[in-house]
Design a protein that fits this description.
562 residues, 4-stranded parallel sheet, 7-stranded parallel sheet, 47% helix, alpha/beta
Length: 562
Amino acid sequence: MDRQLRRELEGIVARIGGLEPRFEAMSDGDLRAMTAGLRDRHERGEGLDGLLVEAFAAVREASRRTLGLRHFDVQLMGGIVLHRGMIAEMRTGEGKTLASTLAGYLNAIAGKGVHVVTVNDYLARRDSEWMGEVYRFLGMSVGLLQNGMSPSLRRPAYAADVTYGTNSEFGFDYLRDNMAMQAEGRVQRGHAFAIVDDADSILIDGARTPLIISGAGTGSADTYKRFARAVRGLREGVDFEMDEAKGAIHATEMGELMISRSLGHDDLHSDPSGLLANHLQQALRAQYLFHRDRQYVVVGGEVKIVDELTGRAMEGRRYSEGLHQAIEAKEGVPVREEDQTLATITLQNYFRLYEKLSGMTGTAMAAKDEFQETYHVPVVAIPTNRPVIRRDLVDRLYRTKRDKLNAVADDVAARNWRRQPVLVGTTTVEASEELSRLLKGRGIDHKVLNAKDPEREAAIVAEAGRAGAVTIATSMAGRGTDIPLGGSRDHYVRERCRELGVEDPEDALDWQAEQAGQYARRMTERERAAVIEAGGLCVIGTERHESRRIDDQLRGRSGRQG
């Protein structure tokens, strides 16, 4: 961070800290009344910058009372940076989610609505409920957007002071609003201020694919199936030439002759529309360049694209120009007819609609030029609250992939024997399953987190810090869940409640809840001590990702405040 900026931020933080005794002495009602007072001052012409110190002091105290979490000074710095329309690089585990409430509350005072953008529905729901306690305590409303939600529920969600949702939900609502025939058919009410969580994942990685609303088009599923059958069993170098690194493939003259005969056509290129030639090209790409469990997965009879950086299945995304249909035909699942584009926007253009755009992530400095060029948003690195004691070791190189995976499995086995928790990061679903087979062969109990199992990812990650836990994860980008050493308190509460015959802790009687709480305290303290003695959480990266930011995100799972 620039020295002058740091001095300025530290001065503001000191002023916020100076108000702390006054705000601590306030009753809940007086603290809640701050919102109306700040709004009244803003309506009379006072700018948000002038209200910042009191607004941040109010949020810090409200958070302490509702969540038991008091913002660190560095989180206040992060909140100021977010308010100023910048990207705050806060190291993984430094409490970005809590820091966002500061800028969210201050900007919601203007009454134009604040959009908090997350990477998935789970995080949007979790953060709206968790951070929503702070906003609601201060008298503000919180809205939530979820996939499949009806327009009648979306409108009040956007009318709230702070609205949580994914980039796709906000973007598609914008497209639908532009297609609406009448004003009352619209749900959004403007684009004043957005806080983007995991900003590099959403604004850079996720922005590669545009948002598209499609309508029913015309096409024949049978044609895709016939081409899929025709290109099976071709010989590389004889029937087709391929450069996998460049993603290029084409049939040779001999190959085209074979395929034409198989399909009953004289010449595929004689079709004036060029459709048959495109079918051939996409069938070849689907068969030989796109591989199951690498570029895509098949879940419930549906082909889903795997995000190469996050390892997640990308819900609702489809390859264009007939490639998705060609893959469906190859995999033998129902082929959905090709759709016609009705409306489209890139995420870059959508986020540039906001009057003020800010974001937070643990790994922004590596992409600061791209943030500046594309969104005209500078990046500021926020210092950590305490020194990081994680030891970062140098890479180890092996002659073959088999040697490397065996070495990883041996290392995991040795650490598992002394009950040290291990998190192993892989770059593909295929690699995670290969390593899983090696660990099974050694009799090591473990969990695999990849694009095939997105629903359980938060629960799996939260337990990755238990003594003896072994977790294999395909890319850790945007997981958004803390890994407490010794395991999460919620897990032990649920465990004890089940022993007492209660499935849901919410249904527990007072004495059952008290017992479960005592058990959770004992277990977390005991397990935490055991894990620290064993060396803390060990993170192993099996190979370098294409993006250095993803490597940093994986490394950042160890050595964090959470």
